[in-house]
Amino acid sequence: MMFRNTRTSWGSIAKAFHWGIAALVIFSIAYGWWMAHAAPRAERLSMYTFHSSIGYDLLFLLVLRLCWRAIDRAPELPQDTQRWERAIAHLGHALLYLLMLAASIGGWLLLGTFSRRIEGTLFGIVPVPPPVLDRSLHGLLEKSHEFLSYALLALVVLHVAAALRHHFIKKNDVLRRMGWGSRARAC
């Protein structure tokens, strides 16, 4: 098992960050939609607390992921990747990180505008107090958080579509090397 990335393969630490963060993003967006649109209003306060805790976990893992990415270089794209594909891949990844950060921080700021204090926890242990903000910012922050979350979801769909394109159309190992049973070339 490789912990660090190689020129052609993702290491187990990068894979764990990728799939853990992906699961939290998908769950958080789905739960957030359900919480805001389908859940009984009387139960929402505890749901906001849970949702915020997931957001704090996501933000913490994302910061760790970015730190790890700074010291463990990403594998190279396949040799046959065209310049426009490289540019789109780099832009897409940068936007994924930016939207994850913005949606998470925006959600934390939003909590500071509720009339009742909502305090989630980091990994169910460390209390994270919301900032104290003016209640008049609630609508703006709520719409911003919702927009950023849906933009992130759209980008995740494009990311998955690109990975499937690499696997089924280009027939390269871009998707396989992010898998746990990957037998991608190691260098």
What tags apply to this protein structure?
elongated; 61% helix; single chain; mainly alpha; two-stranded antiparallel sheet; 187 residues
Give an overview of the whole structure.
There is one protein chain. With 187 residues, the chain is mainly alpha-helical. The protein has one domain. The protein has helices spanning 12-37, 44-71, 83-111, 138-169, and strands at residues 120-122, 126-128. A two-stranded antiparallel sheet has the order 1-2. Helix 1 runs antiparallel to helix 2 (44-71), helix 2 packs across helix 3 and helix 3 (83-111) packs antiparallel against helix 4 (138-169). The longest helix is centred in the last third of the chain and has 32 residues, at 138-169. The mean pLDDT is 94.
List the topology elements.
Blueprint: H1 12-37, H2 44-71, H3 83-111, E1 120-122, E2 126-128, H4 138-169
Antiparallel strand pairs: 1-2
Helix pairs in contact: 1-2, 2-3, 3-4
Could you tell me the strand content as a percent range?
Answer: under 5%
- Sheet with most strands: 2 strands, antiparallel
What count of domains describes the coordinates? 1
How many β strands by DSSP?
2
Helices and strands, in order, run as HHHEEH
Strands ordered across the widest β-sheet: 1-2
Query: What percentage of residues falls in helices of 4 or more residues?
Result: 55-70%
Supply the number of helical segments.
4
Sheet/helix structural class: mainly alpha
- Outline: elongated
CA gyration radius, whole angstroms? 19 Å
Catalogue the unreliable spans. none
- Terminal-residue CA separation: 13 Å
